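Need tokens for this chain, all 342 residues.
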Amino acid sequence: TQIGGMTASHIAALSATQLGALEATQIGALSAAQVAGLSGTQVSTLSDTQVGTMNATLLGGLSETALSTLTATQMASFSPAQIGGLTTTQIATLTATDFAELSATQVGGLTASQLGALSTTNLNALTGAQIGALTSTQFAGLTATQLGGLGSGDFAELSMTQIANLTASQVGGISASNISSFNATQVQGLSATQLGGLTSTQLGGFSTTDIGEFSATQIGGLTASQIGSLSVTNLTALDTTQIGAISPTAMRGLSAYQVRSLTLDDFNGLNSTQIGALTATQVSALSTTVIGGLTTTQVGYLTPTQIPGLTITQLDWLSTTNIAAMSPLQVGAFTPAQVDSL
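Here are the structure tokens for all 342 residues:
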């Protein structure tokens, strides 16, 4: 009752000895307004037991200055509920050392808003185990900038579920070096939408092994720009099923150099819509091996717009059977130079 009747000024006037004499239950009986009067010096003298009895509301009443004086031992006495009661302003005043001292259980008490208030430095202070303890809901509070500041060791701890719940914007903040640290399970956890948000630089962070783990659905979500940014090494790492999953629109993103690297097996994995989506310039880049291996059905997929793109050398590799099977529209699309070469 006596404690309850004291004002914030009275509380602020208590010496370290007087505060230390208060029982934990008395500390717990203080109001948020009274706690707000505690100075940093006073707070630093509180025992772990006294600090441990302060509920989330009381901790939320501490000034940023007072909170910053808490020792690692005092911080370690916080329950997840107490951690969750801190304001975003208070969270922002904690040091990297403070965060490094938190247990995985305590980190689990942070809200999405609190995590979003962390500086990149403080977020980086969390260990892989602490990062791995975060729930998908908590992860939703992280910004693309924060994710971009995490180390590869942190990403190695992320579960498939955590990665799957990242937004395309958040994924866009992950550095190429961190993307290169993804394991097969994490790669498979990325949705087509998430992959569609990656930049060319980020895609370059995937190894040929990672690319080989992409599902047909994931491949189908890549844009023309992304497909065009794949190195020939990564493009040739795709199997026929994956090649066949590239959208017709994305096919137009292939450079002449990439098209030239396609094998006959790769081309055999393409459907009529994909073949028909190629530009005349892309068709002219097809290797003679591919041209020579085309079936009459595949030749029939070539549009009148693509026919003029065939080079004289490519025409030499087309079988007489394939040429004879061409439709009147296809034959009519030949240029004078092509006709002369036949």
